[in-house]
UniProtKB/TrEMBL annotation, chain A:
Residues 83-92 have a biased composition (Polar residues). This is DUF2282 domain-containing protein. Keywords: Signal. Residues 80-104 are annotated as: Disordered. It holds the Pfam family DUF2282. Residues 1-31 form the signal peptide. It comes from the Bacteria. InterPro entries: DUF2282_membr.
From TrEMBL, chain B:
InterPro entries: DUF2063 (IPR018640), DUF2063_N_sf (IPR044922). It comes from Zoogloea ramigera. Residues 4-94 form the Putative DNA-binding domain. It comes from the Bacteria. This is DUF2063 domain-containing protein.
Length: 104, 257
């Protein structure tokens, strides 16, 4: 399938490695044991990742960020654009064109 | 139908006017209210990316991240109302994003973070019993053709950059200043129990695990990894997979690879 030249590995050496792997794995407590004293609690751990975002996005506090819609773009990448070797290359991305317009 | 289309398009493009036909419940200016809504949509989606890509965010700072994320949100709005795994296209977007070119490792760090998000939400599957493995071991001739199903949370990320060290330094493990970004690292991401783990593995182990994951039999996968010539340790790699409960099913096969 690939261009790599492969050396055949004998079944015996696979068996040896697998035997060793089994003894390696036998030592520590498995994840299953650690799960025993925990319970699943959905919807708590991942704040802001669901659609019930009662914070910044849904209050009028969000309107203070209205700048991001249009001109944040010229605000931000200035510093990093200066570090970029070839800022003149148009890649056909709409966003880059927008960025240049804003910056000019 | 076309009203809905206009509405959706105008939500993502601040240059477009307020869609026609909107009426505010209290008689206030619908164009003004639409702007607020449009802004909330964007802010919420950028926030969703920020919480899925925490380290990426830290690496470039808030202003840059939010501006970059806003461009991405407009180009790739979510296709599912579930935002927990929003951002599948974000790493590739970062890779092609010229202003971020000064940080060539940024896209791979984002890839790692996305794999973590996916691993977090992957299905639970019990590992294969050790009895089944021992039984398989007794059938030595069947080992080269043996195929494995791996845990759905598992992913391998080979990178030209020190993705694991960079990521770990942002979790308080190791010193960020001491990380040399240009050192290649391979990450193994998986969930054990409720915990998503990021483990640095040798590149050959990564090749082996990825081969197993794509359905190649044990013998073939081991050969591909050995062919890298970088001292592939089959026992240690299999041991790691077993230790992390990452092998979920064995599919014996008599056919030789």
């Amino acid at each position: 399938m690939s261009a790599i030249t492969t050396k055949s590995i004998s079944a015996a050496s696979l068996a040896l490695a697998m035997g060793a792997a089994l003894s390696l794995a036998a030592a520590p407590a498995t994840a299953q044991d650690r799960m025993a004293d925990k319970e699943k609690c959905f919807g708590v751990a991942l704040k802001g990742k669901n659609d019930c975002k009662a914070g910044a996005g849904t209050t009028c506090a969000g309107t203070s960020k209205v700048d991001y819609q249009g001109n944040a773009w010229s605000l931000v990448p200035k510093g990093s654009c200066e570090k970029t070797a070839s800022p003149s290359s148009p890649t056909g991305h709409g966003q880059l064109a927008e960025f240049k317009e804003k910056k000019a | 139908m076309s009203t809905r289309h206009d509405f959706a398009r105008a939500l993502l493009d601040p240059e477009l006017p307020c869609p026609a036909g909107l009426v505010a419940w209290n008689g206030s200016n619908p164009a003004r209210r639409f702007q607020v809504y449009r802004n909330n949509v964007l802010v919420a989606l950028v926030d969703a990316l920020a919480s899925n890509f925490v380290v990426t965010h830290e690496l470039v700072g808030e202003a840059f991240f939010r501006a970059m994320a806003a461009v991405h949100v407009r180009a790739h709005p979510p296709r599912s109302p579930v935002l927990a795994c929003y951002g599948a296209d974000f790493p590739a977007f970062i890779a092609s994003f010229i202003p971020a070119a000064g940080l060539p490792y940024l896209a791979d760090v984002a890839r790692l973070e996305y794999l973590r998000a996916v691993a977090c939400h992957a299905a639970d599957v019990s590992p294969v019993g050790e009895g089944a493995l021992a039984a398989q071991l007794a059938d030595e001739g069947g080992l080269p053709g043996l195929r494995f199903a791996l845990h759905p949370s598992l992913a391998v990320l080979p990178s030209r950059f020190a993705v694991v060290s960079l990521w770990a330094a942002h979790q308080g493990v190791g010193d960020l200043a001491a990380v040399v970004p240009d050192v290649a690292e391979t990450a193994l991401v998986l969930r054990t129990g409720l915990e998503v783990e990021v483990i640095e593995i040798p590149p050959a182990s990564g090749v082996f695990i990825a081969a197993l994951q794509s359905g190649r039999p044990l013998g073939r996968a081991a050969e591909e990894a050995t062919a890298l010539g970088a001292g592939f340790d089959l026992a240690a790699t299999l041991g790691l997979l077993l230790q992390k409960s990452a092998i979920t099913t064995l599919h014996p096969s008599r056919s030789t690879p």
